[in-house]
Amino acid sequence: MVLMAAVVISIAGPVAAQTSPGPVVDADWLARNMGDAQLLLLHADMRRAPYDEGHIPGARFLDLNRFVWDGDPAWGTEMRSSEEVGGALRTLGLHDGVEHVVVYGSNPLFASRAFMTMEVMGLEGRVHVLDGGQTGWIDSGRELSTQEPVSAGGGTLTLSVANDVLVSADWINERLEDDEVALVDARPDDEYTGADGGMGGMANPGHVPGAHQMYWEELIESRESPYLLERSELAALFEGAGVSEGDTVVAYCMVGWRASYTYLAARLLGYETRFYDGSWRDWGTRDDLPVATGAEPGGTR
Q1: N or C terminus: fewer CB in 10 A for the chain?
Q2: Are 126 and 157 in contact (CB under 8 A)?
Q3: Cβ atoms within 10 Å of 188's Cβ, excluding its own
Q4: Within this chain, do residues 267 and 233 fall inside the same structural domain, yes or no?
Q5: What is the pLDDT along the chain (301 residues), one digit of tens a residue?
Q6: What are the angstrom distances between the C-alpha of 36 and each of 51, 94, 101, 147?
Q7: Which residue, of 142, 162, 182, is where some domain finishes?
Q8: What is the DSSP string of the chain?
Q9: Whole-angstrom distance, CA of residue 43 vs CA of residue 149
Q10: What is the CATH number of the domain that holds 128?
Q11: Same domain, 6 and 148
Q12: 87 and 178 part of one domain
């Protein structure tokens, strides 16, 4: 299927094995490689103002509104079509000759959501998140710029969309008793237990039966210092969230922002990972699906 003359999109099976340097890079790696013509650096945000105020030199502005929309039915931040996302990537300068796409944002969730989306588009092994984001760059003693790079060059972009990353409510419901599918809920206590009343009365309260809670902010040092924890610490958190070796991790939250960070961390640890884009905005508004409340996972897992 051809999106435009220079963008070819196809549907692929399971994504290929992860290759170096992995899903996450640090500021030193970026500094060593950012002069490479085969690297594309993206500043992801929902608004352009933070980019204009100062960004990492050479970064292009990724408007996440071109990756997400309100959804149908109103899921909140459902991923746009592969044609739309592919077109956005092409205009940013991505083409077949680009080996590495590094994405960052002032909010770590902006980067993780972009990372997940680009893996869906078949860029596994080519897309990476900058650890610490713009904060990490500044902390390393490097400066920002207000200069926008010259217009992106041409080139053919071939994308093989991975058909096994995004999963639906029905896909999950069919696997609630599968011991090798680990559901991880990235929401805070009140949303997970149902104490919030189910999105303030907009949905059924609670969580997917069998899902363990692991609030996404547990994966980073803090909002002010948004660095991923050490791998051993991350592995312990996932183990505590009911994930065993060989499991497939399925991440969800309310509308798919917070779960994208769970997705990133799970990919960093090497888990086979799936993403439930509809999340609780979808599951919690369907009366044909089971719901668990309280602090325990419930269900059979």
Answers
A1: N
A2: no
A3: 17
A4: yes
A5: 333 335 666 655 443 333 468 999 999 999 999 888 899 999 999 999 999 999 999 999 999 999 998 766 554 578 999 999 999 999 999 999 999 999 999 899 999 999 999 999 999 999 999 999 999 999 999 999 999 998 766 689 999 999 999 999 999 999 999 999 999 999 999 999 999 999 889 899 999 999 999 999 999 999 999 999 999 999 999 999 999 999 999 999 999 999 999 999 999 999 999 999 999 999 999 999 999 999 999 865 4
A6: 22, 14, 11, 18
A7: 162
A8: -EEETTEEEEEESSPPPP-TT-SEE-HHHHHHHTT-TTEEEEEEESSSHHHHH-B-TTPEEEEGGGTEE--TT--SSEEPPHHHHHHHHHHTT--TT--EEEEE-SSHHHHHHHHHHHHHTT-TTTEEEETTHHHHHHHTT---B-PPPPPP----EEEEEETTSEE-HHHHHTTTT-TTEEEEE-S-HHHHHTTTHHHHHTS-SSB-TTPEE--GGGGBS-SSS-PBPPHHHHHHHHHHTT--TTPEEEEE-SSSSHHHHHHHHHHHTT-EEEEESSHHHHHTT-TTS--B-SSS--S--
A9: 12
A10: 3.40.250.10
A11: yes
A12: no
Q: Which amino acid is at 48?
A: R
114 lies in some domain: yes
